[in-house]
Write a structure and sequence with these properties.
The structure holds two protein chains of two kinds.
Chain A lengths: L4 H8 L2 H12 L5 H5 L6 H13 L3 E6 L2 E6 L2 H32 L1
Antiparallel strand pairs in A: 1-2
Helix pairs in contact in A: 1-4
Chain B lengths: L9 E7 L3 H9 L1 H7 L4 E3 L7 E5 L6 E11 L3 E8 L3 H4 L4 E9 L5 E8 L5 H24 L6
Antiparallel strand pairs in B: 1-7, 2-3, 3-4, 4-5, 5-6, 6-7
Classes of the chains: A mainly alpha, B alpha+beta.
Chain lengths: ~110, ~150
Amino acid sequence: MKTDDDLVFRALADPTRRHLLDRLYERDGRTLTELESDLEMTRFGVMKHLRLLEEAGLVVTRRDGRQKLHYLNPVPIRLIHDRWIDKYRERQVSALADLKSELEETA
Amino acid sequence: MTTMTEQATQVYSVFIRATPEQVWDAITKPEFTTRYFYGSELESTFEPGASYKQWAPEREKLWVEGEVVESDEPRRLTHTWRSLFDEDSSAEPPSRVTWEIEPQDGGVTKLTVVHDQLEASPKTAASVAGGWSYVLSGLKTLLETGKPLQG
C-alpha cells in the first residue's frame, strides 16, 4: 500500500536516496542521466533507489516528450510532519510547561 | 518552513482514501476549501473560460485570481493562477495549475497537482512551494477524518 508511512521512513533511511532528494530540491524535473552524474554508482543502482523513492511517493515522474523527468514530491514528508512531529513537539512543550509550574510551586 | 528554490514546474501528489467525486468536491466547493486551503473561499462555475477566484476569509481580500482552462469532472481541472497575496507576486504573469484525479485500487484516489508555467514568475514559484504540501496534507486529513488539521 503506497500510502504507508513505512515506505517513506524506509526510503529516507538511506544516504544515497536522501542525496537524490537533495539534488531534486536544488533543481526539480531531472532525467536519470542528470541524477546519476555525480553518484559513483551504476545506472541500475540509481534506478533502484529512484524506484524506492517513487514507491514511497517521494519522487513523481512525468513524461516530457521522449524524456522521463523526476520531480520531488514533498507531500509525504509534510504528512509525517503533520501526523508525527507536530504531535510529539506539542507534548514536549506541555511537559516543559508542567515541569516549570511544578518547580515554581515547590520553590 | 524553508521554501524550495524557484521551480518552474512543481509536482505534488497524495493518495487519499476517498472517491474521485469526493476529491472533486473538496477542491471545487467553498465549504471544503475554507477548511484546508488557508481558510480561503473558492468562487468559480468551473466552466472553461470562467473566472477562478480564491478569497481570503470573510472575503477581505482576493488572494488568487485565474481563469478555468479545462474542466472534466471528476478527473481533471486546469486553471490559471495569479497570486495576489503579496505585491511582488501579483506583478508576475499568470501561471497554471492542473489537478489530476485518478482512482486507484482499494478505494484510494491519487490526487496530483502540477503548478507550471512559472518560468517568468519566480516569486510566485517560491511562495507556493511550501504551501501546496500543507494544502494537500490538510485536504487528505479533512477527507479521511472529517476534521481539518490542528493548528
